[in-house]
Write a structure and sequence with these properties.
This protein is mainly alpha-helical. The protein has helices at 15-23, 37-47, 64-74, 83-118, 124-131, 137-154, 162-177, and strands spanning 29-31, 51-53.
Length: 178
């Protein structure tokens, strides 16, 4: 896990979680840097924890939970999500986001969510920059639809390693900044 003082700097440490698990009789949940199904398996084995908690790795990847559950149960990977599914998830997410935050704040705070969904996708960085200039929800929804329609013309599914590579790049950048 991580201490409050550590924040997101450096690598998560799991020995303390293992020591806590050995010392108590209540369920223990491990967390910190769990970005792939393999990492979840390894952290569970190392700590003896009863479960793992996923944080930043789920940003823009709500399907990560089913991927990890499937891998932990079977040892095999699911196919990456369909582009059409991700498009539908993001559009639904945005509609709910605007309903919660309103037009003005919703459009502005939605930008980071859109960025998380398109992280590591072909054309994702340029699209993210374009999103920063859009000032209304209808235009954001149209642009997201067009982006994913274009991606669907190239492939049915997200790139296999899109998620892990995007997160690895962020972790390397965070470590380099230390």
């Amino acid at each position: 896990g991580r201490t409050r003082e550590q924040g997101y700097k450096g690598a998560a440490e799991y020995d303390t979680i293992a020591a806590v698990k050995a010392a108590v009789r209540v369920p223990v949940v491990a967390n910190g840097d769990i970005t792939t199904p393999e990492k979840a398996r390894d952290v569970l084995a190392l700590t003896g924890a009863d479960a793992v908690m996923i944080g930043r790795a789920a940003q823009g990847r709500p399907w990560i939970f089913r991927e990890m559950a499937h891998f932990l149960a079977t040892g095999t990977h699911l196919a990456p999500p369909l582009v059409a599914e991700v498009q539908r998830l993001l559009l639904d997410h945005l509609v709910e986001h605007y309903a919660l935050y309103g037009e003005y704040s919703g459009v502005r705070t939605a930008r980071k969510h859109i960025g998380w969904y398109v992280r590591g996708l072909p054309g994702g960085e340029a699209f993210r920059a374009r999103m920063n200039a859009i000032e209304d929800s209808a235009a954001q929804l149209r642009a997201v639809g067009e982006f994913f329609d274009g991606l669907a013309d190239l492939t049915d599914r997200l790139p296999v390693h899109q998620e892990a590579e995007a997160l690895s790049g962020e972790e390397e950048a965070a470590t380099a900044a230390d």
